[in-house]
């Protein structure tokens, strides 16, 4: 009695065809037109990403949606942003002198037309940073008053636009480094 050969699944057949295509693509000449080559490269990158997604879906073990990697600049940026929005807002018109350097955000809550979309939302109009003069400074006192000076510079600049802006319509938040 002869054994019957097991028929390949449709996906296995497609994978075999994909391997053949991959071999053909790897030996094909891309041509000399740089724009066309770039378009080909981008198309291959998109196809590779699609294949990666298909591969992940075939895996019965779930993957995490995100991974916390403190060395990733995007991760540290998000941590700083979340820390910043967790801080109390302070009126920009009344910033006292204080020690420290860091990141700050300025918010608007007035009626000036161009800034009106920002009124009533917790979205800064400006985000900046104030670095200490001495980059090795580890505590707020040795960092000097860089952050408070920078915020007061913004307040003075806004104060000069008396025909359109009112300094009392601005708040700020800070995260110290």
3D architecture notes:
The longest helix is centred in the N-terminal third of the chain and has 25 residues, at 34-58. The model has no long low-confidence stretch (mean pLDDT 92). This protein has 177 residues and is α+β, with helices and mostly antiparallel strands. The protein has helices at residues 10-27, 34-58, 73-85, 140-143, 146-159, and strands spanning 90-91, 102-108, 126-130, 170-176. A 4-stranded antiparallel sheet has the order 1-4-2-3. 10% of the residues are buried. It starts with 9 loop residues before the first helix and ends with a strand. The protein has 5 helices and 4 strands, in the order H-H-H-E-E-E-H-H-E. The chain folds into 2 domains: 11-58; 73-176, no CATH class.
SSE class: alpha+beta
- Strands ordered across the widest β-sheet: 1-4-2-3
The number of domains is 2
The biggest beta sheet is recorded as: 4 strands, antiparallel
Order of helices and strands: HHHEEEHHE
How many beta-strand segments? 4
Catalogue the unreliable spans.
Answer: none
What value does the Rg take, in angstroms? 28 Å
Beta-strand percentage range: 5-15%
The averaged pLDDT comes out at 92
Shape: elongated
**Number of alpha- plus pi-helical segments:** 5
Q: What is the terminal separation in angstroms?
A: 79 Å
Residues in helix, %: 40-55%
Layout of secondary structure:
Elements: H1 10-27, H2 34-58, H3 73-85, E1 90-91, E2 102-108, E3 126-130, H4 140-143, H5 146-159, E4 170-176
Antiparallel strand pairs: 1-4, 2-3, 2-4
GO molecular function: endonuclease activity
Keywords: Endonuclease, Hydrolase, Nuclease
Protein name: Eco29kI restriction endonuclease
């Amino acid at each position: 009695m002869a054994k019957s050969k097991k028929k390949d699944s449709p996906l296995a057949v497609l994978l075999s065809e994909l391997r053949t295509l991959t071999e053909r693509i790897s030996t094909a000449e891309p041509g000399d037109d740089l724009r066309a080559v770039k378009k080909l490269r981008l198309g291959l990158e998109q196809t590779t990403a699609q294949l990666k997604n298909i591969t992940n879906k075939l895996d019965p073990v779930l993957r995490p949606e995100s991974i916390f990697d403190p060395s990733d600049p995007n991760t540290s940026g998000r941590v700083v942003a979340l820390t910043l929005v967790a801080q109390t807002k302070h009126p920009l018109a009344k910033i006292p002198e204080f020690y420290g350097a860091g990141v700050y955000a300025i918010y608007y809550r007035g009626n000036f037309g161009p800034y009106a979309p920002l009124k009533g939302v917790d979205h800064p109009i400006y985000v900046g940073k104030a670095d200490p003069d001495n980059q090795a400074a580890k505590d707020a006192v040795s960092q000097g008053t860089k952050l408070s000076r920078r915020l007061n510079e913004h307040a003075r600049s806004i104060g000069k636009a008396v025909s359109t802006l009112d300094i009392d319509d601005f708040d700020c938040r800070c995260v110290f480094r």
